[in-house]
Amino acid sequence: MQRSTPSFANPFLSPEFTIAVGRLRHQARVAVLFDGKDIVGFFPFERRGLGYGVPIGAWHSDCQGMVHEVGLEWDPQELMRACGLAIWEFNHLVDGQRSFEPYEILRFESPIMDLSKGFDPFFAKLRENSSRFRAISRKQRKLSREIGDLRFVFDACDGESLRKVMEWKSAQYIRMGWPDRFARPWIVELLKDLLDTRTEGFCGIVSMLYAGDEPVAGHFGLRSDHVMAHWFPAYNTRFSSYSPGLIMHLKLAEGASAASVQHIDMGPGPEAYKQWFRSRDLTVAKGRIVRRSPTGALHWVRRVSSERVHEVVSGHQSLYRAAQWVRTGCAHVSTSLRRDGHSGSEPKFRAVARG
Question: Which pTM value belongs to this model?
């Protein structure tokens, strides 16, 4: 099904990703759709307390939805009933899910690096559109001259490189005042599991950029056939003046192209580098399917109310500054608690799901 529909080629929609999450998340489920005796679709999701549903891998995946036969249509309300869900929320729904389109709230762009014609045409277009890449070339030479010869390993296949990437990324989350994803043990175990997963059409890939013997930047992502999902880029802040993250992304594109990857899906986000490296855009959507039931109505009121509060705060400068201050403090506390083994509400969700 993935190979017959180009938009389904993203590795987050691969069975290997769902299976890896399922080994670590008690709430993970897959709904299988039949037409008579024929299997025509797969819907991976997580079912939490009170029928609240999220995509498989929760909010950590950049591509979500139903993987199905070409032209299939289904009733989302019937799907919710069969899955025991009152609501299913999504934030990176893959394009072309016609039965889900009435439930979309917002559509937005997901930039990709198009390597289908090879690395050289890709890089030539980048240089044509921006002088920034001439500066990157100068910084590459400077980094090589002052620290050591540059070496890039596209598929490092070792746990130490992955550990280094997660360490740098955790430090970035803390600097930015964001919750540290790697303070959640299951996320760490998931990446380790994915790195060890090697099938004909899927693998986890950790890449590393070195200057001499010094690791300066890296990335962990997923590959499914000819598509790579950009996921966790990070760099050593000791070398910030050399723009190691930008150098690493350029090397990543070159290495991916040499490995027959045709495009790298960078995922939605406001990061400037995504616009610098983008060739074109895919479209993803955010929204929710609410089952017509009392529990579904309760979830809808709660979610819509919180979104309206967010709109008010975002539109008021002093409230926004205060909220950002609180958010940063909460992020530090949350990270500390998770690292100490206090995982907040997750055990409660597991208990409800088991029940």
Answer: 0.83
